[in-house]
Design brief:
Rossmann fold; globular; 6-stranded parallel beta sheet; lipid biosynthesis; NADP; G1PDH; 2 domains; Dehydroquinate synthase-like, alpha domain; about 450 residues; oxidoreductase activity, acting on CH-OH group of donors; Glycerol-1-phosphate dehydrogenase (NAD(P)(+)); alpha/beta
């Protein structure tokens, strides 16, 4: 059955040309593979877990359809597999001499990302059979990969074809589905950040991209209780929403449509190798979910303030020189190899006092309207918290072993790390960021 929303998105996307979703659609993989990759050999890439869940089935169906297949390439399922460059090198060495072989990634974020980068290095394409509605990375360009101990997003195109069998997604571990829900919900605050950047003339909203995500977003996340109940339609909507955000990033060639200040919180925790109480890494979705709570609290706190109380002259006089700001950044990221990159990003968005003055006058002139737009975009904090709870996500920082002080420090550090204008930058330029972070940390509304 055709999906007009997906069809329009595929027309706008630059890399993905096929999207097949439905209950039992893994049975169509042989036909789909022949359609998009005629006359070539298939190689299943999975880990022990995803091969058991779907890879074996897909492999046997390819063989039954007389499609040439290589012996599957299977990564160990334990310990938990991470997207590390050494795994990409191993897969690349397997594929390199096999010029007529196209991989089929069977897995979720990690397997997809590693195959995505591998085929880019070999100038090939691939298809993916999703095993969990856990990330928006299936359909996005680029892949986060750990190399030399540091996570960075590496260039690579999205898959040519995505297959999402709802039966498989429905049976995925509940925490993976919950992580996908939180990741999709984070597009709410990402949209609010884009509204702010647009209003200040920094990053104009592209209406075609905005329409791909924001109008249907509330429908995609409206019923988390149905996910918990295993409802097929809810899983279909979740995967559609995650995929649409990836298609939007493809069309724009930028992650702005799907990533705002909540993702900057997550990046800080990745840099710090933050772990939960069991010593395990916290999933990306759960990190951005808690980041979204922090950002929502900040947006509410900032826009409750009266802009008329701001003394623009005094703020401009207090504005630190770049040399002073550099010293603050070096102190905040002392001992972290990422500090040089952070300095580059912060320097690109640093304003001289005269430019700050002009921006603050602009902000003051549109304050009420901007506050109304942002408030209309976000979920009120209690509702957001409840939705995350119902979906099975962490809904308080301490559930992923974060204290009030850590949340406050994350808020300050996250503002420094990327040249992408968000609520963090607005609050910093107003001179309110640290004050608001302290207010949130001491508030019973946000920390009960």
């Amino acid at each position: 059955m055709s999906n007009p929303t997906i069809e329009r998105a595929l027309a706008a996307a630059s890399e993905t040309k096929g999207f097949i979703s439905g209950s039992g659609c893994r049975a169509d993989v042989p036909q789909i593979f022949q359609q998009y990759f005629p006359g070539v050999t298939a190689l299943i890439v999975a880990d022990d877990n995803t091969f058991r869940v779907a890879g074996q089935d897909v492999y046997e169906r390819l063989q039954a359809a007389k499609i040439p297949t290589e012996q599957p390439f299977i990564f160990p399922g334990t310990p938990v597999l991470h997207s590390e460059y050494r795994h990409i090198e191993a897969l690349r060495e397997r594929l390199k001499p096999l010029a007529n072989v196209i991989p089929i990634a069977v897995g979720s974020g990690t397997i997809n990302d590693m195959v995505k980068r591998t085929v880019y290095e070999l100038d090939r394409r691939y298809m993916v059979v999703a095993t969990a509605a856990s990330v928006d990375g299936y359909s996005s360009f680029g892949a986060p990969v750990v190399q030399g101990g540091f996570k960075k997003t590496m260039e690579c195109p999205a898959p040519l074809v995505i297959v999402a069998d709802i039966e498989i997604l429905r049976n995925a571990p509940a925490d993976m589905t919950a992580a996908g829900y939180a990741d999709l919900m984070s597009k709410i605050t990402a949209g609010a950040d884009w509204i702010i950047a647009d209003a200040l003339g920094i990053t104009p909203i592209r209406p075609d991209i905005w329409e791909m995500i924001q109008p249907p977003l509330r429908g995609w996340v409206t019923a988390p209780e149905k996910l918990a109940a295993g409802d097929d339609e809810a899983f279909s909507m979740l995967f559609e929403g995650l995929s649409m955000t990836g298609f939007a990033m493809q069309a724009m060639r930028d992650s702005r449509p799907a990533s705002g200040s909540e993702h900057l919180f997550s990046h800080i925790w990745d840099m710090q190798d933050h772990r939960d109480a069991s010593g395990s890494n916290v999933s990306h979705g759960f990190q951005v979910g808690i980041g979204m709570l922090g950002v929502t609290a900040l947006m509410e706190t900032v826009f409750r303030r009266d802009i008329r109380a701001l003394n623009i002259d005094a703020r401009c006089q207090q504005w630190p020189s770049w040399e002073a700001r550099e010293a603050e950044i070096r102190q905040a990221f002392a001992g972290m190899p990422i500090v040089d990159r952070v300095l580059i990003e912060s320097r690109m968005k640093y304003l001289e006092a005269s430019d700050l003055r002009a921006r603050l006058h602009l902000v003051a002139g549109i304050w009420d309207e901007l506050g109304q737009r942002v408030t209309a975009q976000i979920f009120p904090y209690p509702i957001l918290r409840q939705k995350l709870q119902v979906a099975g996500c962490p809904f308080a920082p301490d559930q992923i072993r974060l204290t009030r002080e850590q949340m406050k420090q994350t808020c300050l550090m996250a503002q420094m790390i990327r040249n992408r204008y968000t609520i963090l930058d607005l609050a910093y330029e107003l001179g309110w960021l640290e004050e608001c972070a302290n207010e949130i940390a001491s508030s019973s509304r946000y920390f009960s």
